[in-house]
Amino acid sequence: MSAKSQHNNILLAILGFIAVVAVVAIIGFFTLGRQPEIIQGEVEVSEYRVSSKVPGRVLEIRVKEGDFVHAGDTLAILDAPEVKAKMTQAQSAQNAASAMSEMAQRGARREQITGAYQVWQQAKAGLEIAEKSYQRVQRLFDEGVMSQQKRDEAYANYKAMEAQCKAAKSQYDMAVNGARQEEKEAAQAQVNRAKGAVQEVNSYMHETVQTAQMDGEVSAIYPKVGELIGTGSPIMSISMMNDLWGTFNVREDQLDGMKVGTEFTAFSPAFNKDIKMKVFYMKDQGSYAVWKATKASGQYDLKTFEVKARPMEAFEGLRPGMSLIIKKK
Fold this sequence. Notes:
Blueprint: H1 3-31, E1 37-51, E2 56-61, E3 68-69, E4 74-79, H2 81-106, H3 110-142, H4 148-177, H5 181-206, E5 209-211, E6 216-221, E7 228-229, E8 234-251, E9 263-268, E10 273-284, E11 292-293, E12 301-302, E13 304-311, E14 323-328
Antiparallel strand pairs: 1-8, 1-14, 2-4, 2-7, 3-6, 4-5, 6-8, 8-13, 9-10, 10-13, 11-12
């Protein structure tokens, strides 16, 4: 075989190799290059937390996780003996204020003056005891053997007794001096104030029975029966299953004109079905979100947007946390 023939064979082999590479590149471009971009999101749901305005101990929980509850259903019962004691005090104060107001309206008799004096003396004695108790607790608190809560409770009781003593003294003075019109009005104002205090404590009493505010599903229960909870501590979460939506993180070059009101189709792997959805919310996720530089020189960056969309029709079985897939061609 001549050298020229060998040269031609080598050239043909090289050209054949180049042709194969070109064909493979073209096939790869039209197959792999056209794979759809995947945008993954998940189903979310509106929920609210059940909590109490007053601290207490969990006495009973009447629902379980997964139960569907209706507005007004009893969810949990708390034990708050402090609130019950406050109610007794408030009702007693209201009764006392009502009696004093009636006395002012009718005019004081000697027996009433004596009674007012005795109430004042009783209040003074209570104040002295409360003051001594507070001073003892304060010393123990300063020595570090008493909690701040106990100290605050003793101080609150002391101030309450101080106010009660002042009120009793003023009532006694009014009985001695005789009620004028202004004093009658003041006595009635004390009655109204006492009624307001009763109403306030009554509202706290209602907080010991927690009820559902809206229909929904119990998604989580936090404390156990017998545990103490603080003011505002969550007791359970209720998911409103009639308010589901999907949340997607979409890079702005993938938005493709998407805006509020845009309709699109998302795929649900859990059901192997497509769901028609409509965008109702869009917001950029700020500089802290995932971004992508379009060029190595970093001429500009692509931001990520949070897109929320609701199913256009009810979809039975859809649950929070399920995946939703958008395929961008």
